[in-house]
Design goal:
heterodimer, A: 514 residues, mainly alpha, two-stranded antiparallel ribbon, 19 helices, 74% helix, globular, B: 556 residues, 2 strands
Chain lengths: 514, 556
């Protein structure tokens, strides 16, 4: 037995260096947790330790981001390709910014910060696994690690009823969705005889795969659809986002959503591809493409229309995040419809870029919402922002910039993101996807109303009550600087990033199997 | 030192001339930063107008290089071309250049800006720093629109121009400014977003046809001209309409005009002036530059629709203007009518009509811009614009009344003033147009011209009637008795505009000559049938009846 284990470990296909980022994040989480139990209340120290862990993981990630690295680890359970690399980069950035933003919250509310940081690192670990998992089991493992950590984070404001409600709702509905996902994975395994995505894709080529796979795929759509908050599986989002503490909301909208997309894309685009000459695979492919196209249109429309009617900024941003999941799905569909590997990889890279742009912009916005919300997020209504434009010009113009980027105005990250995700969908030149893109741009125009509303409220109205400009703590200032630079950098000098994201050091999905 | 060593003055002059378009775009941005810095260090908000004025004036003077130092045109027919990769991953380039079509529009922009700045001398009381920053950013975006030759970059500037204008209306506007600002933004955004889809679709159609996707206008045009890329009927119609919708909303063509009266009425004077003088021209410019050249077949196919809408706009705009109680709203509706004329001339697809349309764009910029300035003067004094509040102003403010009447006449199209030249060319062009069907029952081009012609009469009616009520007769309202006549500053900023009105009315040749080759090239491109033969647009159409009809006219 021991000998067997040794032989396994010595197998060159383990490739420890490839999963070093995951290992470092998990280790950092454990260290922070232990440190907190021996030296409780060291808020700054645990924060800095977490940041160091994240930066180290990022360095290691960049180390693997070069040609010549093996395409997989752990016998094909971990994929090492652009899908993994790009999304992992997004996750690490999201976590780092979340830590910076939550400094204010951790300081003013005196919550147990060590636990918070440890949970955040575990959530990050889960996200990294979701992007790198090339096996349904690993994906589920990552998703649950992420979800459980996030449930706790949503309810971290223990004495606040809304926060409790948020955590409870998220937990119950999330478990329900996880069950669907797991059932879908089981059925997929039943139909194909494998949990490895590369192998599933190979089985799909078999013209006689059982119809069970269609049921499995449908359940997977429900499970992932819940995680990325697509209509009609979005009902939980506004309540959870409103109740959770603002930094956690920002994190949930940016990180777990991107992680959901990473797995969603890997399972569907790479696992259920269109095989030339195999009619059955065509049927499967057409079915999920059609289902997701309809979902994408619904997601954008419902998200944007509902966002118009919100009077609370966090709820508005929650619905906006639903809408953005819809836009990201446009690129996803483009990847599904791509006719060559090159086009497909470019489409996947466009989704990753979109999530990066959205994450930076959204976290920037939440940084300001956190700051202006003050203790217990008391001031998160639109009317709380009345006429602060010229009283706090720096904050207001920065928030306006983020709104314009979410809207997709040129010279901001959001614009390039939108162009990139619309591109592959139009490249496919099929009628359905063109309709999806047209729906997306009409939705963008609708969204102008509520993003502008915040600008209108801040700049065009007069303030009647008095206004004390909040002090900007260093953490938030750092997050805002990163966000503003990011928004402009991705909007103007995005060339190098796009190339980095879509260069084919590792063509996606070229994983060797057992 | 001749020949230009690295530091000699001629070297620097060459450098400026070579990068003139980039400088024109970036100088206002740098200026905006300068205004911000000035305010941060010296905190003298009252001096910012000088800084802004200096920057806009400098930009105007620099832009004159475009007129005097042409240099040789590049192979694509554009001057001062620059083509630098921007986002190479999606093959989009910072590609700029001017030709006859865009030249005067750029100069109109840089010319109107210093005037707009002077007009705000005492009007901007609050948040002056932000006001001047937005004004400068707006100038930068507007110039960018007129010179970009890469579709994505064009879209970028087109959208970017919305933001400063949105703030200008929303913060410094009138009572219903928020409604007007949001309406302005959303109307324009809906149109331009569909254009974005069309732009990306063009990229891939080019990729399918040649193997390389591109956003570059010149490359696309060449591929289309060589016949290497064709559109199916449905794709062509979609692309044409997506572009046309964006521009029609901007123009604004009836029935997309409803944002305009609101935006104009609520905007501060400088905003209205820029909106009328430059922003609306983005629409007509876009139609001519992109719709006509990229989709000539569709342009011909849809021309009757646009001509009908333009005529409705002319008549409807004029009729609605007639009953407006608010002077500014009246001028705003007159804009709808005037822009209808521009569209009419463009879609006649004759050189007369199209030259007239380009000329009328400039005229409208000068005359309507001036009218908005004049309305602004009286509003600053009385804080009302209602016609009923005035009467007999000519007795109190003779200079103001004189200038107002001249400007109104230029807008009506009195011979020897600029409006006449443009409208005359447009109507001749439409008369000679072969784009509308000619049946035994009716020569639609004649009918179209005649109906449009009534617009000129209506224009005279509503403007003169307004002048009569505002300026002549006895002073009815006691509040108007003590009004001061125009100050030297106000007269000073009207003088260049008045000069242009007369100059452009008497001697249009330099303007028309500069636009001639570009416009005639576009005209030929539109009237070129698939076989490569140029349709006979200059001479009357092939049918017997038509020739006879034409002869009849000549005899008259």
């Amino acid at each position: 037995m021991n000998l067997f284990l040794f032989a396994e470990l010595a197998n060159p296909n383990v490739n420890i260096p490839i999963i070093l980022p995951e290992i470092v994040i998990a280790a950092a989480g454990i260290v922070v947790m232990l440190f907190d139990s021996f030296f409780p209340g060291q808020r700054r120290v645990t924060g800095i330790m977490s940041l160091v862990g994240i930066v180290l993981a990022a360095v290691l990630l960049f180390g693997t981001w070069s040609a010549g690295m093996p395409a997989s680890a752990w016998n094909g359970m971990i994929a090492h390709d652009n899908l993994r690399l790009t999304f992992s980069f997004v996750f690490l950035l999201v976590s780092a910014m979340t830590i910076l933003i939550s400094t204010i919250w951790v300081e003013t509310e005196k919550v147990p910060a060590g636990e918070y940081h440890a949970l955040l690192l575990f959530a990050t670990f889960g996200m990294l696994l979701m992007a790198s998992g090339n096996d349904l089991v690993i994906i589920f493992l990552g998703l649950e690690t992420l979800s459980i950590a996030t449930y706790v984070m949503a309810g971290f404001r223990k004495t606040d009823l809304k926060s409790n409600e948020s955590a409870m709702k998220y937990f119950i509905l999330g478990s329900f969705a996880s069950a669907f996902l797991l059932y879908g994975m089981a059925l997929t395994y039943g139909a194909t005889g494998s949990t490895n995505i590369t192998e599933i894709a190979a089985r799909v080529a078999d013209p006689n795969f059982p119809a069970l796979l269609l049921v499995g795929a449908a359940m997977l759509i429900i499970g992932f659809g819940f995680k990325v908050a697509t209509v009609p599986f979005h009902i939980w989002t506004p309540d959870v986002y409103e109740g959770a503490p603002s930094p956690v909301t920002g994190f949930m909208a940016a990180g777990p959503k991107a992680a959901g997309f990473a797995s969603f894309i890997r399972v569907f685009v790479l696992g259920f591809p269109l095989m030339a000459g195999v009619q059955a695979s065509g049927y499967l492919h057409d079915s999920w493409m059609a289902a997701l196209s309809v979902m994408a249109i619904l997601t954008m429309t419902v998200g944007n229309v509902a966002a118009i009617m919100q009077d609370n900024i966090k709820r508005m941003l929650a619905y906006s995040s639903i809408a953005h999941a819809g836009y990201a799905m446009v690129g996803f569909l483009g990847a599904g419809a791509a006719s060559t590997v090159l086009e497909r990889d470019a489409a996947i890279a466009s989704v990753a870029f979109y999530m990066l742009a959205y994450a930076i912009t959204n976290l920037g916005a939440f940084a300001i919402v956190t700051l202006l919300g003050q203790k217990n997020d008391r001031r998160t209504e639109f009317e709380d922002y009345n006429g602060i434009g010229f009283r706090s010009p720096v904050l207001s113009f920065t928030l306006s910039l983020f709104m314009l980027s979410l809207l997709g105005i040129p010279l901001t990250a959001g614009f390039i993101g939108k162009v990139l995700v619309f591109r592959p969908a139009l490249e496919a030149q099929n009628a359905l996807l063109t309709i999806v893109v047209v729906a997306a741009v009409i939705n963008t125009a609708i969204s102008a109303y509520y993003y502008l509303r915040l600008i209108v409220v801040m700049f065009f109205r007069e303030r009647t009550s008095d206004w004390v400009e909040p002090r900007i703590p260093a953490g938030i200032a750092a997050a805002l600087v990163i966000a503003v630079i990011g928004v402009f950098y991705l909007g103007i000098f995005s060339s190098s990033i796009i190339e980095r994201f879509s260069q084919t050091t590792q063509s996606i999905g070229s994983v060797s199997t057992r | 030192m001749n020949g230009g060593g690295p530091r000699s003055p001629s070297y620097i002059m060459d450098l400026i001339a070579e990068n003139i378009l980039t400088i024109l775009i970036l100088l206002p941005v740098v200026g905006a930063l300068a205004v911000l810095g000035y305010q941060m260090f010296w905190k003298q908000e009252s001096q910012l107008k000088w800084v802004t004025f200096a920057i806009t004036l400098l930009n105007f003077l620099l832009s004159l290089v475009l007129v005097f130092d042409k240099g040789a045109a590049s192979a694509s027919g554009f001057h001062f071309e620059k083509n630098v990769p921007w986002i190479s991953a999606i093959n989009t380039n910072y590609h700029v250049g001017v030709d006859g079509l865009s030249l005067w529009l750029v100069i109109l922009t840089t010319f109107i800006m210093p005037i707009a700045v002077i007009s705000t001398w005492h009007a901007v009381e609050k948040k002056a720093t932000a006001f001047y920053i937005f004004l400068l950013l707006l100038e930068s975006a507007m110039i960018g629109v007129f010179v970009s030759l890469d579709l994505l970059v064009f879209y970028l500037f087109f959208e970017a121009s919305l933001i400063p204008m949105f703030f200008l209306i929303g913060v410094w506007g009138g009572k219903d400014r928020i409604y007007a600002a949001v309406k302005f933004f959303i109307f324009t955004a809906i149109g331009s977003l569909l254009m974005l889809v069309a732009i990306i679709a063009l990229y891939f159609m080019h990729a399918d046809a040649t193997g390389v996707g591109t956003f570059d206008f010149v490359t696309l045009l060449n591929t289309l001209k060589l016949g290497n890329m064709t559109f199916s009927a449905s794709a062509g119609a979609f692309l044409f309409l997506a572009f046309a919708l964006a521009f029609s909303i901007k123009v604004p063509l009836f029935p997309f005009h409803t944002w305009l009266p609101d935006a104009h009425t609520e905007a501060p004077t400088a905003g209205s002036v820029i909106l009328a003088a430059v922003l609306l021209k983005m629409g007509t410019y876009g139609l001519m530059r992109f719709n006509f050249t990229l989709f000539p077949d569709q342009a011909r196919e849809f021309a009757p629709l646009f001509i009908v809408l333009a005529i409705i706009g002319i008549v409807y705009g004029a009729l609605v203007a007639m009953v407006q109680p608010d002077v500014k709203r009246l001028v705003a509706y007159s804009s709808v009518a005037h822009m209808g004329f521009v569209i009419l001339g463009m879609f006649s697809f004759t050189e007369w009509g199209m030259q007239g349309a380009v000329y009328q764009m400039l005229n409208h910029g000068v005359s309507t811009g001036a009218l908005f300035l004049l309305v602004g003067f009286i509003y600053e004094r009385r804080h009302t614009r209602m016609i009923s509040d005035f009467g007999g102003l000519a007795n109190v403010m003779p200079i103001y009344a004189t200038i107002f009447v001249i400007t109104a006449m230029s807008s009506v199209g009195l011979p020897f003033l600029n409006g006449f030249v443009g409208e005359f060319l447009i109507m001749v062009g439409m008369w000679k147009s072969t784009i509308l069907s000619v049946t035994a029952a009716a020569n639609w081009n004649y009918i179209a011209t005649m109906v449009a012609g009534t617009g000129v009469i209506f224009a005279a009616v509503y403007l003169l009637w307004m002048i009569q009520r505002v300026f002549f007769g006895k002073v009815t309202n006691d509040k108007n008795r003590g009004l001061a006549d125009l100050s030297y500053r106000e007269i000073g900023l009207m003088v260049p505009l008045l000069f242009l009105m007369v100059f452009m009315g008497v001697y249009p040749r330099p303007f028309l000559e500069a636009t001639h080759s570009s416009v005639s090239e576009i005209q030929k491109r539109v009237m070129q049938r698939a076989g490569g033969e140029i349709d006979q647009a200059q001479v009357p159409g092939p049918s017997e009846e038509k020739t006879e009809a034409h002869l009849e006219i000549q005899q008259k």
